[in-house]
Amino acid sequence: MSELRPPAHRASFATVRRALSRSRRQLVFAVLSALACAMPAVTATAQDVDAGPYVPTPQYIVDRMLQMAAVGSNDYVIDLGSGDGRIVITAAKRFGARGLGVDISEKLVDLAVTNAHKEQVAERAKFVRQDAFKTDIREATVLTLYLLPRFVLELRPKMLAELKPGSRIVSHDYNLGDWTSDNAVTFDSPEKQVINGASQTSLFFYIVPAHVAGTWQIALPEGLAEHSAQVVLQQSYQKISGTTGGARARPLKHASLAGERIELIVPVGNREFLFNGKISGERMEGTIDVRGRGKLPFTANRVAVGKATGWE
Ligand SMILES: C[S@@+](CC[C@H](N)C(=O)[O-])C[C@H]1O[C@@H](n2cnc3c(N)ncnc32)[C@H](O)[C@@H]1O
């Protein structure tokens, strides 16, 4: 796929100055922004969005991003800031997915549409000119990003609010701040050497967690001495911890969350039960391991919503 020069209006020396004080990775974009100032504009229309420079992801890194998210034919991939469309087109052509790319540059959107036709995936790879911040991302099962670090961070609350639990996010080079990634890789990418002297690429992978913070009332299976249990969960992104027992609270032995799947070891009376559940909004259902009786079904309802880091 061809590579376009960045529109001159997107680069600013303020961007460069700000970036210089940040990490070395941010310098990649800064140098590219400065280079962009010296290049002819692709589009003459003024835009009210500071979009940063256009830097296409090398094809082999596109492949790695999509592999990292295990993209398949059931996925709907949205690339925020889609450039020439290569991520969504590759997701459709090589991975059988459907997808949407949005970019603030009309010229790049036109190019992406042309590329999708050339690659014969125009039915499954759509592109629209749109601000990433105003894009409805609720249907995405996979979200990809290669945007300025501050945009990535500014988009984080939107991702947590709109993406369904279990959706996957892959961000090229810039992480999501204090949201610890579920997986990350760093590898050599010599072609970046000529741009900024840094010859490495990082990819950060996240699974969107369900919001589970708060108080849950669990209905225990029949036949147990106790009929119900109350669990209070604290949450910071996908990390959870909790207590049970109200006034005489006892910590949960184990609590983990992966998308909408939750696992808890809850002390009940003088025993401990392993809960495996699925979250659907304010409801949790799944099974409890009860020694001697195997896995028994349980349900729980959230009776009070708690605050969680990431959703403020
Ligand atoms: C670094 S390029 C990445 C292009 C493509 N995703 C790739 O990886 O090859 C960033 C792209 O994001 C676009 N962009 C930046 N800010 C945007 C915004 N707020 N809304 C939509 N697109 C934006 C730019 O026009 C540019 O094409």
What secondary-structure arrangement, pairings included, does this model have?
Elements: H1 13-20, H2 24-37, H3 59-68, E1 76-80, H4 86-93, E2 98-103, H5 106-118, E3 125-129, E4 142-145, H6 149-162, E5 168-172, E6 183-188, H7 193-196, E7 200-207, E8 214-219, E9 228-236, E10 239-244, E11 250-251, E12 254-258, E13 261-268, E14 271-280, E15 283-290, E16 294-305, E17 308-309
Parallel strand pairs: 1-2, 1-4, 2-3, 4-5, 9-17
Antiparallel strand pairs: 5-7, 6-7, 8-9, 8-16, 9-10, 10-11, 12-13, 13-14, 14-15, 15-16
Commentary on this structure:
- With 312 residues, the chain is an alpha/beta fold.
- It contains seven helices and 17 strands.
- The strands form two sheets. Strands 8, 9, 10, 11, 12, 13, 14, 15, 16 and 17 form a ten-stranded mixed β-sheet that branches. A seven-stranded mixed β-sheet has the order 3-2-1-4-5-7-6.
- Strand 9 (228-236) and strand 10 (239-244) form a beta hairpin.
- The longest helix has 14 residues, at 24-37.
- The two termini are 40 Å apart.
- The model is unreliable at 1-22 and 30-47 (pLDDT under 50).
- Bound molecules: S-adenosylmethionine.
- The site of S-adenosylmethionine has 24 residues, from helix 4 and strand 2.
- S-adenosylmethionine binds at residues 49, 51-52, 54-57, 79, 81-83, 86-87, 102-105, 108, 131-133, 146-147, 151.
